[in-house]
Amino acid sequence: SFSDVAGLDNILPEVREIVSYLQNPSGYHSLGAMPPRGILLHGEPGTGKTLLAKAVAGEAECDAFCVCSGSDFCEMYVGRGAARVRKLFKEARKVALKNYDRKQRLKQGRWLPSWGLTAKHVDTGKKEEKKDNSCLRPATAIIFIDELDALAKSRSYDGITSSNDERDQTLNQLLTEMDGFHTNKNDVPVTVIVIAATNIPNVLDPAILRRFDRQIHVPFPDNRGRMEILKVHAAKTRCRFSTICWDYLAEQTPNFSGSDLKQVVNDAALLAVRGGSKHIEQGHLLQAIQR
Are residues 194 and 87 part of one domain? Predict the structure, then answer.
C-alpha cells in the first residue's frame, strides 16, 4: 500500500488519481473519461519503481497482478516472444475474471462450495432478479513489466535502423495487446493496465511510448524523503528511535536511493549483532553509511 512508500510525495498525487479511477470508474465514465492504457515509471535504479507499482495494485484492489521482466520475452526463435506476450495477457484476463466473479458472489451472498453444488441445489428463498451491471467496477488486471528496455528498444536509434524479426514481432504483439479491449461471454469488461519500469527511457521505441498515457519520473529522494525512508525500514528492526537524529542521518546520505537506504539499515543491524548490542544505535547507522 501507499503506507509502505516513503520519499515520493511529489509523484504520489498523480498515482493516486490512477488508483481513484480503478476504484470508482463510474464517476470518470460519466464524463467520458477512458482508463489509462499504461503507466511508465522511469528513473535511476533503486528509486522505488517496483515498490510503487506494487502499491498501486494493492491500493486499487485489482483482481490480478502479474509481474515479469522484459528479458522474459527475449527468445532466439522467431514467434516465441510474441506467443509469450499473448499468453501473459490471456492469463491475466482469465485470473482477473475468476477473482472478479468470486468477489461478486461473496457480495451477493451466493457463494457456492467447490465440491459440486450448483445453483439449483441451493434454495436462497429469494426470487432471482436481473440486475444492471453497468455501474459495477469492471474486472481489473495490472501487468508490471520491469526493465522494459530489454523488450521495447527503439527500432531506429541514433539514426541507425536495426532489424530483428523476433524482437519486432514481440514488440508488435505488445502494442496490439495494449490497444485491445476484451470482454468475456457474459459481457463483463476486463480492464488491463500495463505498468512498466525502465532506467533508460530514451532508448524506447516511440510506438510503445505513445501507449503509455502516464510517464512518471521517479527521482532520488530529497532530505525529508531520505529521513522517512530510513524510519520506514528502521521500524522493522529493533532500533532505538529516541537516541537517533534522523535529520543528521539524512544529511549524511546525499544521492542515496531508497534501495541504498534500505541496505544502510540492514548493514546497521548486522553491525549491531556483531557488536553484541541489543538495539541499533546511531553509531551503527553512521558506520553503515560510511561502508
Answer: yes
106 and 66 within one domain: yes
**Which pLDDT tens digit goes with each residue over 4-49?**
777 787 888 888 888 887 777 777 777 777 777 788 999 888 888 8
CA separation (Å) from 268 to 53, 120, 177, 237, 259?
28, 62, 46, 10, 14
**Residue 68 carries which DSSP code?**
E
Model-level pTM greater than 0.85? no
Do residues 213 and 253 both lie within one domain? no
Length of the chain as a residue count = 291
Pairing of strands 182-183, 189-198: antiparallel
**Bridge partners (DSSP) listed for residue 38:** 194
pLDDT tens digits for 173-188? 888 888 874 544 555 5
Looking at 191, 217, 243, the residue that finishes a domain is 217
